[in-house]
C-alpha cells in the first residue's frame, strides 16, 4: 500500500473505486494511507479523480467499491456531519445572513457546546487567523482573503483532527495566495492536524505539502515528498506535470542497472538514468530540468554531456533569463539562468554548445 504502514495510518483508502455511471471508473483501485499530522496534497489535472477522492472522504460521495477508514474505523456508512471533519472550499461557503462569530458558532452549536465554551473557542480560532476584530461583521463586509481566513477558522473552530481543503486559494490574487499558503501550512503544523488538500496548482503542492499524490486518469501516478517528485519523477506524466521539463525523443541502445545509452532521433548518443525503460530497442523520452542545463562551457563539470544548440528566443524575466533553444529536433528546449552580473544574453540564431551531467538526465516511458 502506498505511503506509511496501515497499522499507524490515520486515513486509509483500501482498494477504493468510484463510478458515476456503472461503467467508467473515475477512481481506479485506490490504495493510500496517511499518518496522523501529515499534510498531503492531491494534485492533478481536471477530471483526474482528486476531488472525487476528497468528496468520498468527506462523505458527500459514496465509494462504489472498497473501504475508507478514519483512525481505524470504516466510515463508508457514516454521514458527513458525524465524521468530525473540517472542510474549506474555494467559494468559502459562509452563511451571508450571519455575523462572522455566528458563522463560527454554528458547528459548535451543532455539537451541543455551552455558550461560554463556544465564545472561548470562537475567540481562539479568529485570533489564530488574525481576524479577532471582525467577529461582528458579515461576510459581505470582508475582502476575499478575509473571507477565506474566516472559512479556515470555521473549519478549525471545533478542533477536528482532519481538515479537507478543495482548491481553497483558487479565487485569491497571487500575492495573497502565497501568503495564505504559508499561513495554512504553519497553522496545520502548529496544531498538529492532518490535512488533505486538493489543487491543480503544482507550485502550491510543492511548497505546502509533506507528500504529494499526483493523480491522472483516476490513478495515483506517484506519491512522494515534493523534492523526490521534482528530482526523481517515476514516469513521463509526472515529469511533465511537475515543474518545467525538457524532453528529447530516442531509442535505448544499451542498458545496465543505473545507466543507459539513448540514440536521439537526430542520431546523437547520450547517457541517461533508466527510470522507466527496461530493454534495448525501446522508445524513450529523455527528461532533463531546465536549471540543470549549462550553456557556459567554463562551468561544465567533468563528465558532462554536450550537444549543439541554436538560440530561438531570449526572454528577460527579471530574476531569471529564459532561453529557448532548438536541440536535437526539439525547438522548445528551455534553459533558465540566474540574472547575475556575468550572465550571457544570447541573440536568436546564435549557435552554442550546451551540457549537463548524465545523472541529471532520465530515460522515461515514451
Labels describing this entry:
single chain, 366 residues, alpha+beta, 5-stranded mixed beta barrel
Helix content: 10-25%
Quaternary structure annotation: single chain
- Radius of gyration of CA atoms, rounded to a whole number: 25 Å
Largest sheet: 6 strands, mixed
The number of E-state strands comes to: 19
Helix/strand order: EEEHEEEHHHEHEHEEHHEEEEEEEEE
Counted by DSSP, the helix tally is 8
Q: Outline the low-pLDDT stretches.
A: 1-5
Estimate the mean pLDDT confidence.
89
Characterise this structure:
The chain is α+β, with helices and mostly antiparallel strands and about 375 residues long. It has helices spanning about 50-60, 100-110, 115-130, 145-155, 175-190, 200-210, 225-230, 235-240; strands at about 10-20, 25-35, 40-45, 65-70, 75, 85-90, 160-165, 195-200, 210-215, 220-225, 245-255, 260-265, 270-275, 285-290, 305-315, 320-325, 330-340, 350-355, 360-365. The strands form four sheets. It has a six-stranded mixed sheet with strand order 6-7-8-3-9-10, sandwiched between helices. A five-stranded mixed barrel has the order 11-12-13-19-14. A four-stranded antiparallel sheet has the order 2-1-4-5, with helices on one face. A hairpin with a 2-residue loop joins β4 (about 65-70) and β5. It is globular and about 75 Å long. The two termini are about 25 Å apart.
Amino acid at each position: 500500500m502506498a505511503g506509511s504502514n496501515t497499522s499507524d495510518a490515520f486515513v486509509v483508502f483500501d482498494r477504493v473505486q468510484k463510478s458515476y455511471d456503472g461503467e467508467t471508473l473515475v477512481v481506479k483501485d485506490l490504495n493510500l494511507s496517511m499518518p496522523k499530522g501529515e499534510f498531503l496534497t492531491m494534485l492533478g489535472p481536471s477530471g483526474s479523480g482528486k476531488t472525487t477522492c476528497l468528496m468520498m472522504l468527506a462523505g458527500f460521495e459514496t465509494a462504489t467499491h472498497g473501504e475508507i477508514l478514519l483512525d481505524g474505523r470504516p466510515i463508508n456508512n457514516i454521514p458527513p456531519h458525524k465524521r468530525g471533519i473540517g472542510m474549506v472550499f474555494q467559494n468559502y461557503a459562509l452563511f451571508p445572513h450571519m455575523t462572522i462569530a455566528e458563522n463560527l458558532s454554528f458547528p459548535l452549536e451543532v455539537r451541543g457546546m455551552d455558550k461560554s465554551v463556544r465564545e472561548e473557542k470562537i475567540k481562539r480560532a479568529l485570533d489564530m487567523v488574525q481576524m479577532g476584530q471582525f467577529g461582528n461583521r458579515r461576510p459581505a463586509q470582508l475582502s476575499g482573503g478575509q473571507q477565506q481566513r474566516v472559512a479556515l477558522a470555521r473549519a478549525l473552530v471545533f478542533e477536528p483532527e482532519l481538515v479537507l481543503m478543495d482548491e481553497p486559494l483558487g479565487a485569491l490574487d497571487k500575492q495573497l495566495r502565497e501568503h495564505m499558503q504559508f499561513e495554512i501550512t504553519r497553522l496545520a503544523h502548529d496544531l498538529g492536524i492532518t490535512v488533505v488538500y486538493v489543487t491543480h496548482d503544482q507550485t502550491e503542492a510543492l511548497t505546502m505539502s509533506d507528500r504529494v499524490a499526483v493523480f491522472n486518469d483516476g490513478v495515483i501516478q506517484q506519491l512522494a515528498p515534493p523534492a523526490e517528485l521534482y528530482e526523481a519523477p517515476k514516469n513521463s506524466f509526472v515529469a511533465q506535470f511537475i515543474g518545467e521539463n525538457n524532453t528529447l525523443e530516442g531509442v535505448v541502445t544499451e542498458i545496465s542497472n543505473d545507466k543507459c545509452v539513448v540514440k536521439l532521433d537526430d542520431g546523437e548518443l547520450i547517457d541517461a538514468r533508466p527510470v522507466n525503460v527496461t530493454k534495448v530497442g525501446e522508445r524513450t523520452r529523455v527528461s532533463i530540468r531546465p536549471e540543470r542545463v549549462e550553456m557556459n562551457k567554463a562551468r561544465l563539470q567533468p563528465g558532462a554531456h554536450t550537444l549543439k544548440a541554436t538560440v530561438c528566443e531570449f526572454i528577460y524575466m527579471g530574476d531569471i533569463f529564459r532561453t529557448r533553444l532548438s536541440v536535437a529536433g526539439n525547438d522548445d528546449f528551455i534553459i533558465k539562468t540566474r540574472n547575475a552580473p556575468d550572465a550571457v544574453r544570447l541573440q536568436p540564431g546564435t549557435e552554442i554548445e550546451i551540457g549537463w551531467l548524465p545523472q541529471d538526465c532520465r530515460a522515461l516511458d515514451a
